[in-house]
User: Fold these one by one.
Assistant:
Number 1:
Amino acid sequence: MVPHLEGARYWISGQANIIFQGRLPFHAPYEGPNSFRNSAEYKTSLIGTLYTALRPTNSVRYNTDLIFDLESAGGRGLSQALGLAGFTNLDVVRNPNLGSTPYVARYQIHQVVGLTNRTSSQDPNFFALAPEVPARRIEFRIGKMTLPDFFDFNDIGSDSHLQFMNWTVDNNGAWDYAADTRGYTVGGMAEYDEPDWSLRYGVFAMPTVANGIAMDWAFSRAHAQNGEFELRRSLIKNRKGATRILFYANRAHMGVYREAVRSYLAGTDAAPNIIGHEHFGALKYGFGYNTQQEITENLRGFARFGWNEGQHESFAYTEVDQTVEAGGDYFLRRAGRPEDKVGLVFVSNAIKRDHQRYLELGGQGFLLGDGRLNYGRENIIETYYNLHAWRGLFYSIDVQHIEDPGYNRDRGPVWVGSVRTHVDF
């Protein structure tokens, strides 16, 4: 809405994103404490962020950025954001009792160490203010951040403000990335960049309990390691493309599904209870594959695959042990609407046998728990149309179809419609 000053050594901008979602009743012969409710319902979420950054010097080879962001997240999700592994609104904070009081979202020191005097241009943004960077460099970041800012990024499927809205579309659902309830953690990362490829690695704090707001600061017993290799190479001549391979390993006070099931079947526990079988230093690990490809001037495609070991409880992001997705978007430049686009994606999520058995016997995760389970993959189709109204103002219409919500063939299918207003200023 307001232009940025060219060459400025500071950054001030913001965004607001409002999503209204509603659904009609669907087939559901039973429901449990964590079910996606089958009655008609509508909810509205609102998130606003103030981005600020300062570049103390004009150095290109040894640039430093100081970053500080404030945020407010209000409103609620359908069914209190319970009952779906691929929940329909990424902006929803899973604990609505936190309220909409503003909080510090990010504070970071970003340091560039150039390894050559040869430079390349970049678009200044609130994570990196310099218009030029060394072509070969190391970048360090330390502070508070959300990991999808830097890992598993995809130009077509990573932005709930202008693209898809589903949790397991915008992020790899099998990546149980370190985060508090609002999606942020504290730690540090390093990134090595060449013109055609990058390698990044970071260590971050884990929450004390599943989906908790408090973090465990004893890094010796609880931490998340994340690494990613990115290759910027196209499969089509004169078009842009990229491939990213991600791995993660989380240590935290996590439970084991098999132990919880055995204890219940032996009569020790009155109900399957993963919390009663948590261990310090428990290890959960997995990997992800992420690719994007520009096909024509207006058409782009993308895909993801994710897997984790599935024996330990889903702890920070969502209850997915394996995921596969494919989709794309199309800009309406030929219709005289250069900023308008439509998107379509299919994502299929799954959980491992021990996780299935735990839910089947009546166990509850931090998102799922119908009391029973007739297992099937949770399959989701999402489509949207994004309309550019004026400068930084956008409107969107979005429709999602969820087959076997919460991996339960006895329930659904579910249709969710959304209207979104987004403002960049």
Number 2:
Amino acid sequence: MTSIHASAIVDAKARIAPDVAIGPYCVIGPDAHLHAGVRIASHVVVEGHTEVGEDCIIHPFANLGGPPQHTGHKSEPTRLSIGARNVIREHVTMHCGTASGRTITTVGSDGFFMVGVHIGHDCIVGDHVMMANSATLGGHVVVEDHVIMGGLSAAHQYIRIGRHAFVGGMAGVNHDVIPFGNVWGNHAHLEGLNLVGLKRRGFSREAINTLRAAYRMLFAEEGTFQERLEDTAEVYARSPEVMEIVEFIRADSSRPLTTPQREI
């Protein structure tokens, strides 16, 4: 059964599933779509063309679906789509896309977005992503599944962060981060692989050891980077994890790659 506090303002055109709970002083706009099981605490704003997936929990003062922070935005009807079972903590902001971009900002399922997180326009955020307090994504950022971003970290516009990567607290990331990578610093540099995350997520010892050997080959000092990339692809062609890194690097990107700062 839907529960809407008497002080909440819910537009009659909003699409609200039968068992949504909306707390005191919330504002739900006419183009909002809240799926079954969504729980919204007090003082939350859901505006714009925003869809919130099943069983999301949204804490006070979050703002979802606000217009993009983009000087070229002219109030076009762009969108924000949020998947299922996300925890969205206090003061989180997630903005809609831009007409000149993807027109939609996409957030996957089973994420945990801590206090003050910001997801900018046209971003693509995967499943099982964790962003700690005040972590920030500029526009057009792609964050793949199982990424963890530490507190006060920030990602530059248009970069990609590969699956299972870890971004350290206060890191300023302005280059692409390989899958399974572990980056720290401002500006961020590659410290190695996210070994803790790999172990926690059940990757086998063999897979981890193969990744470590491939990493050493890829970021060694001998030869050019392109030569090392091709050698890595040939030697480890049967490793799906290594080939994920290779294909990530080979893919078209508008940003360079985050690399180690010192010898590995």
Number 3:
Amino acid sequence: MEHIDEVLNDAWVGKEIEVRGWVHRERGSNKMKFILLRDSTNYVQCVFNRNDFEKIWNEIDHVQVETSIIVRGELKKDERAPTGYEVRVKSYEIVGKSENFPITKDQSIEFLADNRHLWLRSSKMMAILKIRSTVFGAIHEYFRGEGFYEYQSPIFQAVQCEGGSELFSVNYFDRKDVFLAQTWQLYAEPAIFSLEKIYTIAPSFRAERSKTSRHLTEYWHAEMEVAWADFDTIINYGEACVKHIVKRVLEKNERELKILERDTSKLELAVKKPFVRMTYTDALKVLDEKFGMKIEWGKDLRTIEEEKLTTLYDVPIICTRYPKKVKAFYMIEDPENPDVVLGVDFLAPDGYGEIIGGSQREHDIEKIKARLVEAGEDPSQYEFYLDTRRYGSVPHGGFGLGVERVVRWICGLDTIKDAIPFPRTIERYKP
């Protein structure tokens, strides 16, 4: 038994084939029944002639959308068929009936969210999920190709890294001071003194009370950490990784990008052209000059400002040297300006916003302690992390890439919720 995509070529024309899948669409008359059969690879039109099935025509005539079926017949070439070929059915087997499939045309966003488990079968979601799979594979391929080791950190954590207000507390037996991981970073840094170059793809959790099109409470995080690295090295890894991801999607997912009506010429630019590089201070000047947006120096860039900025360029922006007071305690000060840190955000074009955040890490133990106190944290709770600075510390850094944000940008999606099979937000935790 073959997958549909394997037989959609002239070599199979005139031959008996057997394919299986689900009824994507059906139409017909008293004499003919046309079923567009779907599997994970493609679609093929299956033609039932009543003269061949007179005794069981009533069953065939009542086959509905999403019925699972095995079809046997002769493959014919027909340019009128959706994929250019059709099966003249000689026999079939209904495996699983489907009656009154609830998802029809023009359903509301909320209805589709409530029926996400069924909406995954749609052409749109199938295309997104295939691209998502390519993205995951490309991340692994890139880092392994650069000599990185895959490394995992705990999901249950006892310290915060990205802000206490965004933590999900867990009832960990009788303890209340355990949280779901926001990032692997504090548990990744100890490992670079062993493995030097490490990466992971793992879920992260942020209890952000945000209802924007680019926030999830549970998302997949591709993170890297590397020893003996300066700021430029970290940035270069980020740019090369993003380029590799886009390149692989363009190579492997042409059909899926077409289904999503994505303008691939825009993605090709991200592969061919260098990314735009500017400092935070430069970004404020551009926003003022181009949009009349006067932002006080020292305030973090909001979503609206990031989106405006990215409309000016056709490739991602690498924005560096943010004010120290708006960034995490572990980011190292710029030696030329102690008011800013060697931190970086990658902003995707066309208003898609931040896809990567990273930095060179502070290696001065006293400065880390002072920053923790400023952030309202007790340095004694971070002794395991501070030990990495006590015993043979080296320059190092890393970044985190939001996989769903990258998928959203590549696919050209209106909302990040479509970039993951089952989105989790402040308002939705099921199905």
Number 4:
Amino acid sequence: MLDRKFILENLDLLKTNIANRGMQVRLDEFVQLEGQRKALLQQVEALRAEANMLAKSSAAVEDKRAKGQQLKAEEAALTEQLKTIEAQAEEIYLTIPNLTAPESPAGGEECSLDIARGKTPIREFDFPIQDHITLMERHKMLNLAAGAKVAGSGFYYFTGAGALLELALTRFALDHIMASGYTPVITPDLVRDDLMVGAGFVPRGNESNTYRLEGYDLNLIATSEITLVGMHADEVVDLTQPIKYAGLSHCFRSERAHGSATRGIYRVHQFTKAEMVVICKPEEAEDFHLELRRLEQEIYDALEIPYRVLEIAAGDLGAAAYRKFDLEAWMPARGGLGGWGEITSTSNCQQFQARRLNIKYRDEAGKLQYAATLNGTAVSVCRPIIAIVENCQQADGTIIMPKALQPYLPTQYWVLK
């Protein structure tokens, strides 16, 4: 979240920013409520000051008692009004998005800019291309029918080479980012409501894409970003060196799209993900954002997957993100004709999450400041697997695993026949 004083002093900037993001926020109502809140606070403070003066006065005991009870009753009534106003203001406050980087293009998803390409060119095939479902079922890597039988549409089983490929991908990615100082962490798959909200995710409501456990203050996480930043809620962290995590977790998303471009394992309800999270000083955030993007590109260059880098438009940013890059892989059979599909994202959230979660550090003068948080996908296994099997297929239906993954696989799985 943004500082309340900053919001009230920069209303035109905030309204423009909200409009550029295509969001609906009751900002004028928030301003009105903030005014009421401040007025009520002043009244409460005035009553307390009067009560203090009364206690020190020379008035008769009975008179002091009667007046004191009256002041307490008035204060209690105002305090109840204040709680109501504060709750209403807080509800709106939590919907106000982060500011947007000047580099982010205006407009919606279609306005995101293609700013770079990976080292591997798009492959020209001289034989009919098969999609990942056909290839993976042929090689007994994937069982969609069994997943649907036990959990419903959008779930799956990785079997044989599919299971080993998931393990190989996650370990390869972890090894790569650990070499840059990221500490591996296996996080809980469940998180409390308040930490979901603090990280910028809404655990309830029609726009929520998360699963909530009825009867419990718990949610299945959509990404380990939530649990990694949540681990430091209400802490003063030591940022002499930045905190750099490589989180491994299952992720759960309730949304399920339909259509040829999202068939198979492109959009599923559960998947394994290795996520990078950085907690640093605000002035370091931009450099770490570029580091996260570099690490993502290095991973997919090593896997020899064709990809493009997008500068995400303002209208497609999450509420917490100040600036965001996506990597999209070329998937030769996507939608029947081939297409780009998102495989990673990396966001600079500045102090937005830290302010909501109360994550602070001491600056050089010893003053408490809010930290900055960033996140980036190393691998979210399903979509990279689609890109690997479709790009690495051969005319005879075999699949040659990328050389970078071969050391992580038994030799008999280097070429799937």
